């Protein structure tokens, strides 16, 4: 059976891993939202910035918009008539 010290070390390591993953996820969302803001500045009324930011939160920053990559921002572009 594992000693009490070993169990505490394992739990401390797991806690550290969970905290690190939460920080990384938060950073990804922040980068995603900053990219949305940059695209909004570049494209103005042609870019749906709020929709982009909502997608950042919904997908936890996994889909990063790149203002120079039309495929990554296509869902957030609109035609003005």
Describe the protein.
With 81 residues, the protein is mostly helical. The chain has one domain (4-76). The protein is 67% helix and 0% strand. The chain has helices at 4-43, 49-58, 70-73. Helix 1 (4-43) packs antiparallel against helix 2. The chain is rod-shaped, with a radius of gyration of 19 Å. The relative contact order is 0.15. The model has no long low-confidence stretch (mean pLDDT 84). It comes from Laodelphax striatellus (Small brown planthopper). This is Eclosion hormone. Residues 1-26 form the signal peptide. Keywords: Signal. InterPro entries: Eclosion (IPR006825).
Which key features would you list for this structure?
81 residues, single chain, 0% strand, mainly alpha, 3 helices, rod-shaped
Instruction: State the separation between the terminal residues, measured CA to CA.
Output: 72 Å
Shape: rod-shaped
Number of H- or I-type helical stretches: 3
Question: How many beta-strand runs?
Answer: 0
User: Main sheet?
Assistant: none
Tally of individual domains? 1
Summarize the structure.
It comes from Laodelphax striatellus. By secondary structure, the protein is mainly alpha-helical.
Helix and strand arrangement:
Elements (H helix, E strand, L loop, with lengths): L3 H40 L5 H10 L11 H4 L8
Helix pairs in contact: 1-2
